[in-house]
Amino acid sequence: MVEEKIAVVVDSTAYLPQEAIRKYDIRVVPLSVIIDGKSYKEEVDLLTDDFYAKIKESKDFPTSSQPAPGDFVQVFEELKKEGFDTVISVHLTSGISGTFQNAVSAGEMVEGLNVFAVDSGLACMAQGSLALKAASLAEQGKSADEILAYLEKMKQNMDAYFMVDDLNNLQRGGRLTGTQAMIGSLLQIKPILHFEDKHIVLFEKVRTQKKALKRIEEILDQAVQNGEAEQAYVIHGNVPARGEAWLKELAEKFPTVEFHLSYFGPVIGTHLGEGALGLTWSIK
């Protein structure tokens, strides 16, 4: 029996560490952000630090766009030429982007290659941890069926919560009215968002950042007790010191959980804004 040669593909909103991309030879298909009428492929034409500096000076609110099916076709064709016969392509939730659907369409266009597109239902390192697990299992010689089954198990034991610091981005993105944003800012309201049925929805409104982070910790505590949180990522929107401080606190409170630091890159940062903090966890 010939062993499958499996490649892993992600879109750029997984925000995987560069060392992981190199280690597993993961291919990344970028989404784009549009700032003042100019389009930039995130992490290719525009690095995260530069993005947050640029939006402070921009006249218009930045927007984002998904890769075209042709962008995926190009990557899949390259992998086929390199001798891969199977691709597991892990993507940003279909509830907020057409990226997953474009990967599915592209997979159908490339003959002689089995493409399995995975809708993470989430974003950032929640999506990224699925891709890393897929790559690790592929390296161990697991079949595509075994990998896909494991990813489904991980998704069932995975959650993510975000605290938004600046309400203006939610207002500009159409998730809050101008009045709600103004009142929320005056009252120091920090909305906690999470994923529900693949969409980002409001979980709770909490006053002050400290109380919002405490509330997220309570949810994590429950997940740890249920055996659903063995690894976790603290995710920050251009506030690394704040992210590291929270990670240190969490690591002391939850010694059984393996914590890592990640970030909101340009596309997700467009929607959540600078100063956002998030926490995602799953089984290992």
TrEMBL record:
GO molecular function terms attached to this record: lipid binding
Span of the signal peptide: none
Record's keyword terms, sorted: Lipid-binding
InterPro entries in the record: DegV, DegV_C, DegV_domain_contain
Superkingdom as given in the UniProt entry: Bacteria
Keyword Secreted: no
The protein's name in its UniProt record: DegV domain-containing protein
Organism (species): Listeria kieliensis
